[in-house]
Design brief:
The chain is an alpha/beta fold. It has 2 domains: 6-99 and 184-290, TIM Barrel; 109-171, no CATH class. 40% of the residues lie in helices and 14% in strands.
Length: 292
């Protein structure tokens, strides 16, 4: 049986996306997606709305999911998606709350670094609104807060930062001046939390976070020993070579292979269109995700 048309990572206003879950689902359906996951960072708060919206689109099935930002040795921000989790499980919700508390503290440290260490003024309108609503603040929000402040316009032009994504890359990725790392969870802890909630744990966009192919393969081997269920081999920024390496590393170990365009909203400079990833002639192995 052929795999459904899938896009298994997307984000809403419950994390760092710009559209509410219902609109994310509607846009996915309009793009021909048959199997969708809403994977907001460290939360499942948008899943109920997304499931309700999916009922309005009979050709689309939504997988309850989340994306957990994790640490692994020197790697400060690896992402593990949890698919098919019980989004109502009290223990899982408590675990996510603990992870978000660490994420919030990290966001505050990065905001302070942008302001105090790097000299950016911050437009805190969106940040304050998200804090008041109890919603997570991610690096795209911080980048926008600096990019949108008029006091930074001349500096941004001088540094050639064409959009907020370029500012994020210059100041908020590992090794950049305003980046601050999380303290929890580790990849192993993320996998354990996902399994405890009845889900499948999949390493998201491996080549987004790790450049060396040998290191990616070694990490897949190590994570599979910790219970990893799959790898997001197909991804909007993966080249053919990267896709083939991630795919083979997963399949050689009996792991499933997923993919996504990582939709964040129509105005995002990179992640703005569903199904914007290539299979490069490979056959996805979605396992139970294809049928459950």
């Amino acid at each position: 049986m052929a795999a459904p048309t899938f896009d298994l990572q997307s984000h809403s206003t419950f994390s760092d996306g710009t559209l509410p879950p219902r609109e994310v689902v509607a846009r996915a359906a309009a793009a021909g997606v048959e199997l969708l996951a809403l994977t907001d960072h460290d939360t499942v708060d948008g899943v109920a709305e997304a499931l309700g919206a999916a009922r309005d689109h009979p050709g689309l099935r939504l997988v309850p999911a989340t994306e957990l930002s994790s640490i692994d040795g020197d790697h400060e921000d690896l992402h593990v998606c949890g698919y098919g989790v019980d989004h109502t499980d009290p223990a899982f919700l408590d675990t996510l709350e603990r992870f978000r508390a660490d994420r919030a503290a990290r966001a505050d440290r990065m905001a302070a670094a942008l302001r105090d260490d790097c000299g950016f003024a911050l437009d805190t309108t969106v940040l304050d609104r998200k804090r008041a609503a109890g919603l997570p603040i991610g690096r795209p929000h911080l980048a926008r807060a600096a990019f949108d402040h008029p006091d930074n316009a001349a500096r941004i032009a001088t540094e050639g930062l064409a959009d907020f994504g370029k500012l994020l890359e210059a100041y908020l990725i590992p090794g950049a001046p305003a980046y601050r790392r999380r303290t929890t969870p580790t990849v192993a802890e993320a996998i354990e939390a996902i399994h405890a909630a009845g889900g499948l744990a999949v390493w998201a966009h491996p080549f987004w976070d790790v450049e060396d192919p040998d290191e990616v393969v070694a990490a897949v081997e190590r994570f599979s020993g910790e219970g990893l269920d799959g790898v997001e081999a197909f991804y909007v920024t993966h080249t053919r070579a990267q896709t083939e390496i991630a795919y083979r590393a997963a399949r050689d170990r009996g792991l499933i292979t997923t993919g996504s365009a990582d939709f964040h909203g129509p105005d995002h400079p990179l992640f703005h269109r569903f199904r914007a990833f290539d299979l490069y002639g490979l056959t996805p192995a979605l396992g139970d995700l294809a049928t459950t």
